[in-house]
Design brief:
InterPro entries: Lysozyme-like_dom_sf. By secondary structure, the protein is mainly alpha-helical. The protein folds into two domains: about 1-50, no CATH class; about 65-99. About 60% of the residues lie in helices and about 5% in strands. It has seven helices and two strands, in the order H-H-H-H-E-E-H-H-H. The radius of gyration is 15 Å and the shape is elongated. The termini are far apart.
Amino acid sequence: MQLTWWSNYATMSVALKRGLDLLLHPEQVKTPRVSYEIMSYGVRTGFGFANGHKFNTYFRGEFCDYINARKMVNGLDHADEIAEIAQKLEYILNKSTLS
């Protein structure tokens, strides 16, 4: 997980009820548990790195919009390329669960 600017470390830390822990100890963001907490909270709420965009806007039921989901992180920068990679990964994951 990547957070940029000290203010993002502080606001995400407070949002996760960690006080200023992530600001004072930013290396914690690299741990799997904290990285998951940040990613999960962000995509569910649209808070922080997700720029106000929520996961369920782009993925629900049979609806899947990999291109616009890119807005959660960096606008539409390289959205087509990333969508293609996501589709390949989805295909691989689906094939692995069929056996």
